[in-house]
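Module 6 notes. Inverse folding takes a fixed backbone as the condition and produces residue identities as the prediction. Think of it as a translation problem where the source language is geometry and the target language is the twenty amino acids. Below is one complete input and output pair. Work through it position by position during the lab.
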């Protein structure tokens, strides 16, 4: 149980630090019509040495608003504001949600205070400086300071973040007011009954003794109230501890985010002088050995890391966007958010409280002693000089946010070098808040940065596929969180430019990793890196940042990885479909929820055009059972499972007829005939003309009824796995990996006829390989193309290998049928099993910062994402116009990809589709990676038909 911390805290290192005060924002103040005014909106900014002033929208950053500034020099930010007549005689305060980073504050020329920090809030008492009517607020802001140095925040975004990125609020309170309200809830040993414990500081700012005051606290929904009498001498503060016992409250949990309105009224006699309210949840956090318990039950954290991102505004995020983030992550079956690498805004935590997400809040301390921040090449990470800032950054984070039930852990810093500075801060944090555990990122294993953190919860970043086994073998005595794991594609920039489908292949790393994490005791869970694309569009037209590493982009559109996260993290797992004689099916269900029985879920099935409400089976959390679906009769069933929050936690297509191999070809009714065999080789079969250049062995054209289907190829293509370094070089120009093998030289060509078919065999060399391409033209007008080459290069680690055909630009609509990982996909997902996509959608804009309506519609000169992404394991892959279709036939084991190539389209048919060369992912997929050496075989085949 926590105790109210004294206003002055003496750290272990002997430094005295005054705790910040964050007064409860009032709902009502006696005699005041409106006690809270926003100071957001239009300000003026004047950089030092500049005679001009510039309009500045708050919240905002200077750079994004075309304000020329030097990050080492101050910018004077000014606005006027009105103090209402009915505020006079009260206390008046101003709260800054964040100023980046070093600032001084004056009102009407009177200096009121200063603050050093980044994304932490501070308040000032402006009572003596203001008057009724118009007042002038001046804020001198310098972007670069020790706060930015120790937080690495501008470095992380690759542009200076100077400005006022969060709300500015003016509010008034009566002369006797509630100065502080700290809330904790505890539960009994059975986790049934609870107590709300509130610690208040009430301050009398008058010169009169107050004898008839009282503090009334209520939980109206639970019919609980407590009134505490107060006597305050002049200019005296009183500490009040209120305990409200709650009998069988509905507990707060990410699966059941039950909240109550905790209302507080300061009374003078029978008159209400001030009131405010807090949303509270009854829940208790405990660490038991290597488990983290919420309300006595171990949790497994299905998480993502979250940066605050607006592509046009920088790290300035509206309240609406904060709520949207929480909604999207909840929709993706996440139950945990790590706020990297600074505390979030108030609005985001309110959304997590209401919607149901566990949160680890991180202080704005990042890369102290880490090689990513080059300042530590000359500075000492363990210098005691840094201790006060590290401590204050953590204190301000905790004091401002601690009343949120969604917060289950505090993080001292990200990827920093443990030292006595952090040991001192850990002791302080543990003293400030005894109700939650603490972490320190990064405690690793294997040598890097393993410097002895003693935080309550251990942490590893990027543990790799062997991470769970390491935890199990090491027998950690603390819960182990994988604070960052399964990094999404970003540093393989050439690969993602070439083929958006590498984003769908990322799940090949995530799926086995998560399954091992689920079954490993001691692994608390983890947070994927990262949640939102970190890309910022600057006024000069450049884009900066580490890049598109999220399952959602900066515009909050779902990317392909979003569906992977949703399915891998799904707490309801379907398997083993059994068909019964009465036409029903039975489906095995695993319930991975923490506290929720399946019978509390809304389950339904779509069978044909019928919607069937299902009786959800009685399956306790952590158990398995069976779901019966009646009246199926061999039809595919689309099952949907919705939780009590209205979230679709599981969705699958069951009993779907799996596509098999291709039907046997129709008997030949015609023969392929050689029409010419001089300069060009022309073969006719069933109305299809095949024109082959005898000097190259490639097709000049394949046509039928005056429609051309192929205008070149086949060419050999062998592209390697590639990656770039871990750098924020988002916009550096890169060439896509679309180049066919180079310098083909034909050494022999042979033509033969057999059984009504004509076979053309070409032998030749590329710089990279030597071999043969065999094209068999059947009498029905279809083409079978095969190839067999030997590698001439010393070594190649390939991603895709195959042959490429050149296709007219007129056949610019793609259709396909293919295998896919999941039975159900959104209609716009690039990995859906059946679909159609044009080279460019009507709303596609090539390389634009203004996105299309769907992520899959976004385009480069190669085509839109949907069109140019690999369709893996295809059965049918076709390019068509309104009347004609070129069809590549597959057996579910080969892969196809098309892209715009000048005035034509190129289509690759590949026997290989390795997920990625991305530096963080490659270790997870090493089993599928192959290395070809000189003399290694490259071979495959494909069938084409022309409709």
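Target side of the pair, the amino acids:
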């Amino acid at each position: 149980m926590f105790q109210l911390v004294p206003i002055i805290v003496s750290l272990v290192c002997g430094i005295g630090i005054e705790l910040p005060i964050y007064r409860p924002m009032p709902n009502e103040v006696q005699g005041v019509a409106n006690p809270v005014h926003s100071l957001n909106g239009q300000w003026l900014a004047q950089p030092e040495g500049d005679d001009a002033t510039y309009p500045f929208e708050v919240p905002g950053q200077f750079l994004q608003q075309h304000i020329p500034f030097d990050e080492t020099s101050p910018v004077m930010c000014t606005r006027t504001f009105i103090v209402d007549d009915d505020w006079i005689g009260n206390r008046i305060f101003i709260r800054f949600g964040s100023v980046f980073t070093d600032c001084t504050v004056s009102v009407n020329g009177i200096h009121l205070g200063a603050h050093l920090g980044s994304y932490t809030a501070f308040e000032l008492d402006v009572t003596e400086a203001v008057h009724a009517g118009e007042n002038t607020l001046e804020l001198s802001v310098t972007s670069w300071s020790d706060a930015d140095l120790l937080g690495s925040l501008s470095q992380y975004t690759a542009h200076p973040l100077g400005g006022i990125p969060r709300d500015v609020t003016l509010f008034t309170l009566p002369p006797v007011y509630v100065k502080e309200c700290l809330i904790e809830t505890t539960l009994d040993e059975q986790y049934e009954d609870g107590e709300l414990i509130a610690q208040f500081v009430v301050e009398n700012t008058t010169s009169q003794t107050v004898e008839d005051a009282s503090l009334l606290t209520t939980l109206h929904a639970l019919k609980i109230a407590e009134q505490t009498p107060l006597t305050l001498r002049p200019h005296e503060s009183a500490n009040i501890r209120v305990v409200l016992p709650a009998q069988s409250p509905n507990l707060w949990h990410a699966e059941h985010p039950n909240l109550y309105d905790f209302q507080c009224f300061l009374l003078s006699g029978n008159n209400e002088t001030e009131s405010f309210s807090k949303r509270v949840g009854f829940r208790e956090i405990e660490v038991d050995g290597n488990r983290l318990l919420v309300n006595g039950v171990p949790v497994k954290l299905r998480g993502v890391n979250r940066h605050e991102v607006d592509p046009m505004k920088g790290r300035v995020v509206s309240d609406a966007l904060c709520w949207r983030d929480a909604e999207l992550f909840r929709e993706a079956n996440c139950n945990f958010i790590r706020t990297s690498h600074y505390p979030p805004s108030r609005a985001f935590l309110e959304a997590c409280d209401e919607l149901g997400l566990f949160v680890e809040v991180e202080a704005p301390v990042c890369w102290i002693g880490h090689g990513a921040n080059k300042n530590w090449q000359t500075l000492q990470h363990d210098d005691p000089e840094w201790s006060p800032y590290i401590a204050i950054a953590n204190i301000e984070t905790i004091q401002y946010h601690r009343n949120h039930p969604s917060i289950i852990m505090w993080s001292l810093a990200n990827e920093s070098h443990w030292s006595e500075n952090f040991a001192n801060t850990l002791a302080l944090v543990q003293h400030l808040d005894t109700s939650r555990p603490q972490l320190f990122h990064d405690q690793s294993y294997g040598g890097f940065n393993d410097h002895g953190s003693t935080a309550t919860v251990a942490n590893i970043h990027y543990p790799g596929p062997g991470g769970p086994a390491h935890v199990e073998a090491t027998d950690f005595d603390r819960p182990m969180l994988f604070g960052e794991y399964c990094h999404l594609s970003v540093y393989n920039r050439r690969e993602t430019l070439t083929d958006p489908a590498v984003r769908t292949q990322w799940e090949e790393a995530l799926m086995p990793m998560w399954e091992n994490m689920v079954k490993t005791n001691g692994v608390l869970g983890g947070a994927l890196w990262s949640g939102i694309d970190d890309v910022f569009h600057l006024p000069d037209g450049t884009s900066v940042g580490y890049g598109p590493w999220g399952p959602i982009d900066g515009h909050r559109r779902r990317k392909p990885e979003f569906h992977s996260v949703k399915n891998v993290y799904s707490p309801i797992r379907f398997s083993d479909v059994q068909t019964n004689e009465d036409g029903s099916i039975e489906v095995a269900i695993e319930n991975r929820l923490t506290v929720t029985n399946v019978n509390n879920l809304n389950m339904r099935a779509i069978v044909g055009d019928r919607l069937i409400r299902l009786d959800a089976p009685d399956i306790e959390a952590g158990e398995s059972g069976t779901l019966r679906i009646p009246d199926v009769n061999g039809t595919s069933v689309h099952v949907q499972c919705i939780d009590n929050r209205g979230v679709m936690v599981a969705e699958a297509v069951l009993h779907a007829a799996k596509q098999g191999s291709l039907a046997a070809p129709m008997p030949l009714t015609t023969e392929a005939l050689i029409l010419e065999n001089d300069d060009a080789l022309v073969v006719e079969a069933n109305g299809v003309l095949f024109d082959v250049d005898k000097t190259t062995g490639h097709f000049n054209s394949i046509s039928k009824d005056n429609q051309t289907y192929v205008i070149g190829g086949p060419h050999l293509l062998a592209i390697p796995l590639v990656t770039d370094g871990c750098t924020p070089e988002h916009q550096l120009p890169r060439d896509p990996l679309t180049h066919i093998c180079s310098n083909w030289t034909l050494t022999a060509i042979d033509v033969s006829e057999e059984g009504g078919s004509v076979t053309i065999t070409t032998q030749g060399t590329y710089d990279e390989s030597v071999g043969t391409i065999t094209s068999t033209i059947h009498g029905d007008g279809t083409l079978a193309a095969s190839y067999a080459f030997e590698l001439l290069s010393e070594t190649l680690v390939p991603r895709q290998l195959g042959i490429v055909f050149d296709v007219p630009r007129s056949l610019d609509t793609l259709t396909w049928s293919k295998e896919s990982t999941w039975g159900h996909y959104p209609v716009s997902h690039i990995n859906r099993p059946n679909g159609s996509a044009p080279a460019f959608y009507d709303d596609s804009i090539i390389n634009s910062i203004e996105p299309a309506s769907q992520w899959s519609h976004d385009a480069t000169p190669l085509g839109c994402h949907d069109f140019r992404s690999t369709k893996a394991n295809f059965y049918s892959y076709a390019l068509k116009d309104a009347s004609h279709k070129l069809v590549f036939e597959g057996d579910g084991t080969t892969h196809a990809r098309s892209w715009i190539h000048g005035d034509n389209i190129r289509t690759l048919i590949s026997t290989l589709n390795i997920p990625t060369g991305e530096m963080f992912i490659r270790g997870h997929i090493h089993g599928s990676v192959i290395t070809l050496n000189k003399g290694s075989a490259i071979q495959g085949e494909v069938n084409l038909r022309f409709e």
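Reference fact for the lab report: Residues 63 and 160 are 7 Å apart (CA to CA).
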